[in-house]
Design a protein that fits this description.
The protein is mainly α. The chain has 2 helices and no strands.
């Protein structure tokens, strides 16, 4: 039961990081260097969430 709670906590933490990173990247897209950041954000937002969740699952014992 403890291992399941650990996995759930890691996945929730990864999703929270991804969710909070969205507004930060949207703000960065409106800055002076938005022309560089915007394409990277659009191309990498969904894969980033998947990588965070998979990394959280692999980090659990």
């Amino acid at each position: 039961m403890g291992a399941l709670l650990t996995v759930v906590a890691w996945v929730v933490a990864a999703l929270l990081v991804a969710w909070l990173g969205g507004p930060l990247l949207r703000w960065a897209c409106r800055t002076r260097y938005g022309w560089i950041i915007r394409p990277l954000h659009e191309a990498g937002s969904r894969p980033a969430v998947a990588v965070l969740v998979i990394g959280a699952l692999l980090a659990c014992p």
